[in-house]
Structure formats: C-alpha cells, structure tokens
From TrEMBL:
<dbReference type="Pfam" id="PF01883">
    <property type="entry name" value="FeS_assembly_P"/>
</dbReference>
<protein>
    <submittedName>
        <fullName>Iron-sulfur cluster assembly protein</fullName>
    </submittedName>
</protein>
<dbReference type="InterPro" id="IPR002744">
    <property type="entry name" value="MIP18-like"/>
</dbReference>
<feature type="domain" description="MIP18 family-like">
    <location>
        <begin position="6"/>
        <end position="79"/>
    </location>
</feature>
<dbReference type="InterPro" id="IPR034904">
    <property type="entry name" value="FSCA_dom_sf"/>
</dbReference>
Length: 243
C-alpha cells in the first residue's frame, strides 16, 4: 500500500500549477489521497474560492492524467473543495470531459491557447534563472550566448540545484520542438530564434519581469492558502488510505 501511495504522490509531484510553475504538492494544494484498489481519489484545494476555473480545470485534468499513467489504476476521481466551480470541475474531470463540455457558457474552445501562454512564461522563467547564474558568476554575454547544449550540460563546477534548473529548462525547451543536439545553441528564444548580442540586455529585462511576476504570484498564493487553511502541509497528513 505504501508503494502505491508513493507512486501516486510521485505523479502528483509532476503536476504543476500552470501559472506559477510550481508543483501542486509543493504549493500545498493536495489535501489527501484515497486509494481503494484500482481507484484513486485526490482531494485538493486552492488559495481562494474564486481562483480561475480554467486554471483549476487544467490542474485537475493534469492530476487525473498523470495518475492514470500508473498501470494498476483504472479510475481517478477529483474532489476540488471550497471552490466556486467545484461541482463542474469534479464531475467534468472525473468523467474525462473537456473544459468546453464542462463549461459551455464560459469557453469557445479548449485550453490549448492558455496552456501555450503559460508554457512560454515557464520557458522564459526557467531560462532566466540559468542566465542569471552565469552572469553573476562573471561569464560575458558573448560567452553565454555561444554556449552549446553540451557545454551547458557539462559546465564545470555547477551545483546540483543549477543542474536541476538546466534539466527543467531543457524539458520545456523540448516541448517547443527545439532539439537538444550537443552542438545546438543552448539559449534561444522560445520560438527558436537566436538571441542577438545587441538585444541581449533587453531580452534579459523581459524574461526577468516574467520570472519575478511568477515568483510574486507564487508567494502571494502561498500566503492566501496559509491564511485560508493554516500551516501548509498539515492537512496532507490526514489522507485516508483504504484497501
């Protein structure tokens, strides 16, 4: 049973708040998990009653999809609590409905466009963290822009945290269809265009604003969640596990 619980939480840790680029587990959004044979129920919560239904739906849908990847799971039910659209989201996601099917009066299509917008922000934010590291370490702008994928991956003296940032950056870079061949330029814009040296300073300001906005929103949401439910993580200990 503990192995199944660990597997479920490993999948949950791979689900990110699309706006914040933070795992839902780190944000304290997961209240508990119930495992009943091949059926899994996930109880989760958000910082406010009025968090955007489309953001909430994306997270609920991703939770269901990730856990359904486990070979022993044949059904995942979502129980979002204390939210203005709990009923629609819980029923829609648990039954595999789309956002449009669940909210026909609020949507003129799917969530692909909003997912793309958030992935662009994630790309910029993750890239900025790495660029900032190299700038602070004294590497010149020209040297940074000339780094290849292989050189970035094997750059000497990097801490594990920086390697983790690079892995996260490469992961989202691959989502945009950019290859990771050893000789490829390590830092390009999300659309694949090269960053020109004369534009680098302005580009850094742009992606810095994106990163700071996401960090501000992340801290703001943590504060709201703590105000609403108390100490983060405390509720996670009350999960109900049943054979």
């Amino acid at each position: 049973m503990m192995r199944q619980q660990d597997e479920v939480y490993a999948k949950l840790a791979a689900v990110y708040d699309p706006e914040l680029d933070e795992p839902v587990t780190d944000m304290g959004f997961i209240e508990g998990v119930r495992i009943d044979g091949p059926e899994v129920t996930v109880y989760f919560r958000l910082p406010t009653y009025w968090c955007s239904p489309n953001f909430a739906f994306i997270m609920a849908e991703d939770i269901r999809n990730r856990i359904m990847e486990l070979p022993w799971v044949n059904d995942v039910r979502i129980q979002l609590k204390d939210h203005c659209a709990s009923d629609e989201i819980n029923e829609g996601v648990s039954k595999g409905k789309s956002f449009f099917e669940s909210f026909p009066s609020m949507s003129n299509g799917g969530l692909d466009e909003i997912r793309h917008t958030f992935r662009v922000k994630t790309y910029k934010s993750r890239q900025e963290r790495i660029l900032r590291h190299f700038i602070q370490s004294g590497l010149s702008h020209t040297a940074i822009l000339n780094l290849t994928v292989a050189e970035l991956s094997n750059y000497p003296g990097l801490e594990q945290d920086t390697h983790s940032l690079i892995e996260g950056y490469f992961a989202v870079r691959s989502e945009f269809g950019h290859t990771l061949k050893p000789g490829d330029t390590a830092f390009v814009r999300y659309d694949g265009q090269l960053i020109q040296p004369e534009d680098f300073s302005n580009y850094l300001l742009e992606i810095r604003r994106t990163r700071m906005s996401m960090e501000f929103n992340s801290n703001y949401c943590r504060g709201l969640l703590q105000t609403r439910y108390g100490e983060p993580g405390k509720e996670n200990e009350t999960e109900v596990i049943k054979q």
